[in-house]
Predict the structure of UDP-glucose 6-dehydrogenase.
Amino acid sequence: MKIAMIGTGYVGLVSGVCFSDFGHEVVCVDKDPAKIALLTRGEVPIYEPGLDQMMARNVAAGRLSFTGDLPAALAGAQAVFIAVGTPTRRGDGHADLTYVMAAAEDIARTAQGPVVIVTKSTVPVGTNRQVARVVAAANPGLDFDVASNPEFLREGAAIDDFMRPDRVIVGVESARAAQVMEEIYRPLYLRDFPIVTTDLESAEMIKYAANAFLATKITFINEIAALCEKVGADVKQVSRGMGLDGRIGKTFLHAGPGYGGSCFPKDTRALSRIGQDHGVPMRITEAVIDINEEIKRRMIGKLRDLCGGSFNGARVAVLGVTFKPNTDDMREAPSLTIVPALVGGGAQVTVTDPQGRREGEALLPGVRWEADAYAAAAGADLLVILTEWNEFRALDLSRLAGMMAVPRLADLRNIYSAEAARDAGFVAYDSIGRAGFE
Ligand code: NAD
């Protein structure tokens, strides 16, 4: 089967590469010529573990190619996936569908048909029908179906998530679209991963409901963590005790500095707008959005307290700026709130991140970049762990304490313990939802 993939971002590129690994012929298209130039040279524009090898293998096998030429990509394709961005629309919180609709019109003008137009981007309920209307209006003679196939991969573990998904959601309303989608995902059927076939609206809704639920789970434990600090409980013990209950589950119960990333913030905002538009306010999701902002502000307060009440003149070293480990993605990362507050408050800030510098340099003005945690910490008055990269999980705390001007540690990912920090020579330690010392 020949597949065209529109958009070579985190989702489009991973999906295209993995579909080619299934054995399909995949042509990936992007409107950004710089990305296509990189990809054609065999370079990967994003950091995603394992993607470069899988991409190279499938290019070499002749199943995977990249182009800016949409008509060539669509020629003979039985399915075309739309995997373009759906960021928050400026001003109102809705998902911005400009890129999706532009892609739909491009397809309508170029496709020969019969073709299934599959929306992989996260889109509000009703969008697939809107895509169908836009395509039919732009090219009334085109023989096409639509399908909704929201993506659930996590950056940093994207290949494994795509190749071994918890489930694949396919929203269709015609037997022909169902059959094409089944053929595309046949390798997963054979390996017994559940493929859930629904109507278009349910497929669209599943994606928002799932993301809002996960954002709620994180925010719930973050709020419990704030209470733990006041009552003398330890949130790590609390979340373990909760998570062992099979009805609750262990994942997404790690307290931290608030969720960020390319999906949870924008998808919770979009869901709350969809609810408002339909007169069914998503009150839990709305509360989650507000509480998450509060949590990020609370982190700034913690750091200010550790600096003795003011950032002015403090030398602060920040470990990790990407929104989570194993990605270079900086979209809505907590660092984008916390680091500017440090710089704005008069701190001298050094930062380090294994992959974040390329994106982060422009987004975090006024900081000095260092190669690793030790270089960043030298001479600092406060060390902040913001992203739990493996590189920061087994630091030599004694060495760090020894090279800092005032050894104080803000462990915003609960990697270490007050005891370990004290033993290493730190004079102050704070984390999330656990006792610290000063
Ligand atoms: P991204 O911004 O990384 O990539 C989008 C790509 O689409 C860009 O390269 C852009 O140049 C290209 N593009 C836009 N319009 C185009 C057009 N008309 N023709 C060709 N190319 C075009 O976005 P992403 O992170 O991959 O997200 C894509 C969608 O998938 C979003 O709806 C997102 O919510 C959803 N999603 C993302 C993730 C994730 O972890 N990033 C996970 C699940 C779902």
